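Ops channel
N.P.: pipeline sanity check, posting one input/output pair.
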């Protein structure tokens, strides 16, 4: 059996709520061409529509603090 190589990408979106609480939303295999304006539009949408709330005090969404896109490669070695 041959070695197996798997690649994936993750987009982590760190959200801040009015009570100071933070939460990270992780998206698997996001679009490859996500731009900063896409993130700004998402932030505006989340502020206006109030679609997520904090779990500590049910506080409203305030802003996106940070986004990080990571690409990962996992290699499974066939040692036989």
């Amino acid at each position: 059996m041959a070695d197996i190589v798997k690649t994936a990408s993750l987009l982590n979106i760190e959200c801040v709520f009015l009570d100071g609480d933070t939460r990270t939303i992780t998206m698997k295999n996001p679009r490859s061409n996500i731009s900063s304006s896409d993130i700004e539009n998402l932030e505006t949408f989340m502020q206006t529509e109030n679609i997520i709330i904090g779990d500590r005090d049910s506080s409203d969404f305030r802003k996106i603090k940070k986004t990080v896109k990571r690409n990962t490669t996992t290699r499974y070695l066939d040692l036989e």
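N.P.: looks fine end to end. Helices lie at 36-49.
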